[in-house]
Amino acid sequence: MLRRADQDGPYKHTLDTEKNRAIQLIRSTTEAGVDIFNFALFPEGEAMRTYNRTSGDACFTKFTSAEVWATGSAEAFLTEMVSQVHPDDQAEMVSYIQVHYQSCHNGIDPGAVPSFSSQRFRARKPQGDWGWHEVRSRIYRHENGLVITEGVMTELTEVMQLLLEDKLTTLPNRLASEQWLQGVLDREPAPDLAVINLDLDRFQSINDSFGQASGDAVIQQAAAILRQQLPAGAWLARLEADEFLVILHPNRQGSDNPSAAAASDLATEAEAAVRRFQETIQRGFAERLELPLRLTVSGGASLNPSGVTCARTLLQQANTALMEAKQRGQAGYCLYSEAFSQAIEWRLHLERDLDLAIERGGFQLAYQPQVDCHGDWIGAEVLLRWPQPDGRSIGPDVFIPIAEQTGQIRRLSQWVLDTACSQLDRWRQEGLQPPRLAINLSSVQLEPTAEEPSVGKLLLATCRRHSINPDQIELEITETAVLRNRTMALQQLEEVVAGGFRLGIDDFGTGYSSLQLLQTFPVQVVKVDKSFVQRLPDSTTDLQLVQGVLLIARQLGLKTVAEGVENEAQWQLLQTLGCDTYQGYFFDRPLTAQQMGDRLRAGLERRGLKELPPPLRPTAPATPQ
Ligand code: C2E
Ligand code: MG
Ligand code: MG
């Protein structure tokens, strides 16, 4: 509780409510729905009064004149007041008071009456818990020469508290943050600020897999860890779900001349702070929470030396930087740059177009043949294509990561599976013998949700719907996707294999994983990444790597596929090294369903690709790519 009016003290007076400016101020604020707590005022330079709304009385405090500021008694009052302010808000309160009152010492031009400035803060309520308060005040020199301070201290109502506070963590929320930040930015001069957005990576999967209570515990832990780590004077808030805000203002006096050097110092400081937060949160989670997954944090920052004076814009920029950081992977960090906004806009369009394409069937499948060492056709990889109306093409490498981040990948993958299965069924009904199809799985599909608890069951249900035997389908999952959450991936993939599907590890060698992965996971196929194959036969390092992978795979009884085979020399070498299956432009570019059907009809799958008449290799670009 802030200093209360000394109602029964020796200075009790009654105010002339009609004339007194402060009383009018109270009336107007009360009408605006704010609960007046008390106010301090130097009317006519006589004394500081406090007013208690409940009793309707006004009374003089111990201070007797405006000169108290010079003698220090007012500072004693303020020091006591600040000591009752919430620790997280104290530095801000001191800064507010300093900026506000330093003019008392410096001298003020008579007659100039500034507008009120305000500060929100938490202080102890009589019951002992923290309550939100707002002080609105201004200071000026009256024409008669006296320094006048007038203001209102309001205790915000419960409704206001609900509006400003996050219940789960008791941290200020987005609205409180925006108002606070705007207050700081409005100061003359505004201090240098770094606005930092922090967001837990893949938080949704915690809610989905372990329930809401675990999600809440994670949020509370994150808030507690951040509170401990917070530098003096920094603002901490929870913006929503798993998103936190930290505002640093290391240079509290503000920079008169916002130079590039100041911005660069601030940028270094912001990045260092984010790295510290990331490190402590990640370590804290590992120590305190018993969750079978590694939690990481991403961060984005924006700085106000860039000249931005609008709180909402700065917050938006920090969020844009965060989205950019997230796109680059987990535990990332980015400082806002203008270019991000354009990229984000492009992305938002792409997300919307993806939605439309999923709804309206705007995708196609391509099938890239896989051959054995005789060149005989033994399989085909199913590859997603997104033709654009203007003839451009957006590659899966571009839109799949976006669809994964937005969750659109689930519907997209289901479409791929349905289309591939129905195509298999159609070829079969035509009397053709289609080869086994390899379909790419996304890491997102390995994260169970309430609607999709098991990818294995989903795959089986789809196969049943199209009367397809699971052994007609091989599923490819990348090494990095598996490593993202080993425990969950293992559980999900065991179900997939138990359902009768063949499982392959795609892009093997790119994820820096140990070969132990091959022993732990129920895989039957290892696909050597095309980046290694493409540097063959010249690169000795790649040759050794490919040789090693093929050797170990063979020892573990796994089938091997080399992707990205582009020339005869590569094919020959890979055969010598004992690879089982080959895929690449040397044999075929991805084909349309129509081209595949034609091939099947012509019986090429039985005669083998080696019998194809030259000049098939290398092939001309075919559609779709
Ligand atoms: P991936 O699964 O490793 O697919 C192989 C990629 O290598 C394909 O690129 C294919 O067109 C390309 N490729 C094949 N032979 C050669 C060659 O000789 N030289 C070169 N330079 N490239 C070759 P694409 O179709 O652009 O697909 C890129 C990635 O997008 C795929 O990599 C896969 O991770 C993902 N993807 C494609 N379709 C799907 C899908 O339906 N679902 C999911 N989750 N991912 C998909
Ligand atoms: Mg693949
Ligand atoms: Mg691959």
The CATH architecture designation of the largest domain is Alpha-Beta Barrel
Which sheet architecture does the biggest sheet show? 8 strands, mixed, barrel
CATH class of the largest domain: Alpha Beta
Average pLDDT taken over every residue? 78
Rg over CA atoms: 34 Å
Number of strands: 22
Strand content: 15-25%
- Would you identify the CATH H-level superfamily of the largest domain? EAL domain
Helix content: 40-55%
**Spatial gap, N to C terminus:** 70 Å
Report strand order across the widest sheet.
14-15-17-18-19-20-21-22
User: Into how many domains do the coordinates divide?
Assistant: 3
Number of helices: 22
CATH topology of the largest domain: TIM Barrel
How would the blueprint of this fold be written?
Elements: E1 12-13, H1 21-31, E2 36-38, E3 40-41, E4 49-52, E5 57-60, H2 68-71, H3 73-83, H4 87-106, E6 117-124, E7 130-141, E8 147-155, H5 158-164, H6 174-185, E9 194-200, H7 203-210, H8 212-229, E10 235-240, E11 243-248, H9 260-288, E12 297-303, H10 311-327, E13 333-335, H11 338-360, E14 364-371, E15 377-387, E16 393-394, H12 396-406, H13 409-429, E17 436-440, H14 455-465, E18 473-478, H15 479-484, H16 486-498, E19 502-508, H17 516-520, E20 525-528, H18 530-534, H19 540-555, E21 559-563, H20 568-576, E22 581-583, H21 593-601, H22 604-607
The structure holds ligand C2E and magnesium ion (2 copies).
